[in-house]
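subagent[fold] <- orchestrator: predict structure for attached chain, return tokens only, no commentary.
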Amino acid sequence: MSQYLVLIYGDEAVHAAMSPDELGGMLADHRAFQEIAGPANLGGNALQPTATATTIRHDADGTAIITDGPFAEAKEALGGYYLLEAPDLDAAIALAAQVPATGGVEVRPIKVFPR
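subagent[fold] -> orchestrator:
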């Protein structure tokens, strides 16, 4: 079995404008996905808005440059993730296609390094 990170993207303005009922419905959709995924779901979380992000880049001398905000401006932002375990990429995609998202989801295999 391999592990896959499913990155969930959406428009933060859409989420911020949700009524309590709409937010409750979205959370119910995620709970339903977690039940569908069962033991293949190894974990996941929602992220705070991009305004809370801190970006660290290194200059040519290797000095860390720290700035408030996300790495890049975009209409859709990373809003959360799931860590899934699946036998192959096709199975991971089939499962990730059921993740509720106002934008899209990205499925990326986890790279395992030898110890």
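orchestrator: received. Logging for downstream: The two ends are 18 Å apart (CA to CA). The mean pLDDT is 91.
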